[in-house]
Specification:
- The chain is rod-shaped and about 95 Å long.
- The strands form 2 sheets. The chain has a two-stranded antiparallel ribbon with strand order 1-2.
- Helix 1 packs antiparallel against helix 2 and helix 3 packs across helix 5.
- The chain is mostly helical.
- Strand 1 and strand 2 form a beta hairpin.
- It has 5 helices and 4 strands.
- It has 2 domains: 57 residues, no CATH class; 73 residues, no CATH class.
- Keywords: Coiled coil.
Amino acid sequence: MVTLPGLCRFIIQTNNQHEKKIEAAGLNRMLQELNETLQPAEKQLHELVKRCNQVNRILEHAALEEDMEWKDRVVFHGSTHQFLTLLAPLIKSEHCKVDGKSNREALLRALDEVIKVCPEEGKEPLKFSSLLDAAKRYLSDE
């Protein structure tokens, strides 16, 4: 493989302060090899730049999850049973789908991201696992 420093040494070589003559055919051959080596690298670089631009466009409008702040969070103040009674028609419905599928757990997870159930004033909201267990019990009782 021809390298640029090797080509430069080939073109300009001095030996005891005398310039060495270069054959035009040898130089043309080396330049041809160098061009053939650089063309695939140039194509790869062009493809890389295109992909970087695509990623940049996506990231310009992205909000990273850890940077997002919940300013307006809905808090349901009441018992878990009251909350599930209100949501039962949605949970049981085949019309409510998450990612195109009827999935009760995914629906509850999506609702839990927006609405937090706080059974007692001043206490922490329910964790998702507690809400899911309560929903399973509620639906099995009906």
